[in-house]
Write a structure and sequence with these properties.
Number of helices: 20
Structural class: alpha+beta
Distance between the termini: 30 Å
Largest sheet: 7 strands, antiparallel
Bound molecules: adenosine-5'-diphosphate, magnesium ion
Strand content: 15-25%
């Protein structure tokens, strides 16, 4: 029942202006309909005329006011055998009419209709605030046609390979690579952090950022649909209607609620006259109708999804993409977090410390060349860093049978030689025990050299972890790297629990064990990774969180929460938003239920009219919507 009265909250309208004017028109039409309906009904009740004519006029008035509500109720009932507040209002009004409370019936519809109009206004306001928070949808792209000619087109019309121009103050509409010029980009709408980011020829640019200064030309690398901006908007828009993994409390409650309420109403109607001789059947039916109106959960049904929607909008604004209301809900219950190390706690940007040659028939350049040949096919942070640092030409076709060995390294064939590039466990080499990450090169049966790499911990990581610990969250590190480095990083971050030299499958097993520990509690376990080879673990965790998601398709797909920046502190922010959203949902629930109980008490002692019940319901709904707006602040 509650799902069925969920407001249609979608984030951004494609044709902003058109729909805004039509919305305004439709609310004026609604008001006109209301006035006409009320006037005709009043004429039917009060104008001196034959009784039958009066009743017919009144029914016409009622129908003008009620027809949409009836239509919605019937439609829902036929399609899914569910009843919602439209249904409750309809039977209450018909019931009031039948027991001779025509004026009361009229009040009920009028209040209900006014409530509907106000409610849609309030929801639109929330929706507008959220889309303003996330103002990243580009309106146009400047397509370059010839050397000195550009044309404004819709971002949808731009194709991969086209060149677009981004002038100062404009939004980058589509992902691409800078081919000309340089600029300072403001990525705050994507990451929530107002850092200027300088780009020049050859740099990758993500859509959604704003050109603060400069002029650049981009070669488009993705069509609009697959650009960062579209992906983010799509995520946020779908977040609230994505089917929840775990049923939320409200959903569960609503399924048993409706039948119970109807049963109780029937009991009230039948039993009251039996217990008390003073109560007639028409009175008891009237009271059971009031009971039905009171039990209508409109306020809850509207404010709960709206709250989650606001929370998701708010976190997106801070560069935290939450993929569904259940994940936003779970974040506040996270009690233990396992972190991947490389690229998550550390920068994942390696420097080359030194190159060792073990077999003197090779040079340092030979060692580097073997490494580069393999890494140019890998996506690992190690690969990306090495390729940035060394530039060696080779023929890509010479590299045959390339294979990535998850958590260890890679292998390929070159000139009939089998080459392994990776850590000591991959090449079976434990003679070199110096500190740091070492990438060994094995040619057939011999380890011929190694490249020492160094990675540093991200700034602010220790503070962020400290804050997590202060909340009572247990922190641990799962890494594929060797024990010495793992211990050094753990030491620096003051993390006691660290497991090293883990393959992705080991991480999976360790997490499985952790999940088991909390199985029958409401405590949750999160895994935070960079999404490179952690996808199975990200998917297994109660909440899988990927970091630095900007541009990494696999990270966006594998995780439940994507943090667009590299900052671990966003976890604290995400948990705060989760807590705040939950607090407001609770406030709304308690308030709505308290008012209902009060009205119920008043009606049992005969002090509440049906219209008071409707008035209270409409009022509570509006107040809870306004309260929900606080999440966005
Ligand atoms: P982490 O758990 O710290 O993110 P990974 O599981 O991604 O680490 O990798 C574990 C180890 O495997 C790395 O420390 C590295 O020694 C080795 N390795 C993984 N991928 C590569 C690669 N492409 N090139 C070289 N070594 C690699
Ligand atoms: Mg990793």
């Amino acid at each position: 029942m509650i799902q069925s009265v969920e407001p249609e909250v979608t984030l951004v309208e494609n044709k902003k202006y058109e729909s805004r004017t039509s919305k305004k028109q439709s609310s004026i039409l609604e008001i006109i309909r209301l006035v006409i309906g009320i006037t005709i009904s009043l004429l039917g009740i009060y104008l001196p005329m034959p009784k039958v004519v009066g009743i017919i006029v009144l029914i016409i008035g009622y129908l003008i006011l009620l027809y949409r509500t009836i239509k919605n109720a019937v439609k829902l009932f036929i399609s899914s055998k569910k009843i919602n507040e439209n249904f409750l209002i309809t039977i209450s009004v018909i019931g009031a009419f039948l027991v001779g409370e025509q004026m009361e019936g009229l009040m009920v519809i009028t209040l209900y209709e006014i409530g509907k109009i106000l409610e849609s206004k309030a929801i639109n306001k929330t929706r507008k605030s959220i889309s303003e928070l996330m103002d990243i949808r580009p309106e146009y792209a400047n397509l370059k046609i010839s050397e000195n000619e550009g044309k404004q087109v819709s971002p949808n019309e731009v194709k991969i390979g086209d060149t677009i121009i981004i002038k100062q103050g404009e939004k980058v509409p589509i992902d691409g690579i800078v081919t000309k010029g340089s600029a300072s980009l403001d990525t705050s709408s994507l990451t929530g952090e107002s850092l200027l980011y300088h780009v020049r020829e050859g740099d990758e640019v993500l859509s959604g950022s704003i050109n603060e200064q400069g002029l650049i030309e981009l070669k488009v690398t993705k069509d609009y649909e697959n650009s960062t901006v579209s992906k983010i908007l799509e995520l946020v828009e779908n977040a609230t209607d994505k089917k929840a993994k775990t049923e939320t409390f409200v959903n569960k409650a609503s399924r048993i609620y409706t039948p119970i309420v109807i049963l109780l109403a029937v009991i009230v109607a039948i039993i009251l006259p039996i217990i008390s001789k003073d109560i007639t059947y028409s009175e008891s039916i009237y009271r059971s109708l009031i009971f039905l109106v009171i039990s209508c959960p409109c306020a809850i049904a509207i404010s709960v999804p709206l709250s989650y929607f606001s929370g998701i909008g708010k976190s997106s604004k801070s560069g935290i993409l939450v993929k569904g209301s259940d994940y936003l809900d779970i974040l506040k219950n996270v009690k233990e977090i396992a972190f991947d190390k490389t690229g998550t706690l550390t920068k994942g940007k390696f420097e080359i410390r030194k190159v060792d040659v073990y077999d003197k028939s090779y040079t340092e350049d030979d060692i580097l060349k073997y490494v580069v040949m393999g890494e140019s096919f890998s996506n690992h942070p190690i690969a990306k860093s090495i390729l940035k640092l060394v530039n060696i030409e080779f023929n890509k076709e010479d590299v045959k049978e390339f294979k990535e060995i998850s958590g260890k390294g890679l292998s390929y064939n070159f000139n009939e030689n089998k080459i392994l590039i990776g850590n000591s466990s991959l090449v079976n080499y434990d003679k070199d025990k110096t500190e740091g990450t070492k990438i060994f090169v094995k040619l057939n049966n011999d380890v011929i050299g190694a490249v020492s790499l160094a990675d540093t911990v991200k700034e602010g990581t220790k503070d962020a972890l400290d804050k997590l610990k202060e909340r009572g969250i247990k922190v641990k590190i799962y890494t594929g790297d060797n024990q010495r480095i793992a211990a050094r990083v753990a030491d620096e971050l003051e993390v006691k629990n660290v497991e090293s030299e883990m393959l992705p499958t080991d991480k999976y097993k360790a997490l499985e064990k952790l999940l088991k520990k909390y199985k029958n509690t409401n405590k949750k376990v999160a895994f935070v990774g960079d999404g490179i080879n952690d996808s199975p673990v990200l998917a297994l965790a109660d909440v899988g969180i990927s970091m630095g998601g900007v541009g990494s398709q696999s990270a966006i797909e594998a995780s439940d929460v994507v943090i667009m920046t590299d900052s671990i502190d966003k976890l604290n922010e995400a948990i705060d938003i989760s807590k705040k959203t939950n607090k407001i949902i609770k406030q709304n629930l308690i308030f709505a239920i308290a008012v209902k109980i009060l009205i119920l008490a008043l009606s049992t002692i005969g002090m509440a009219q049906m219209s008071l019940a409707v008035f209270a319901d409409v009022g509570v709904t509006l107040i809870t919507i306004v309260n929900t707006l606080r999440i966005l602040r």
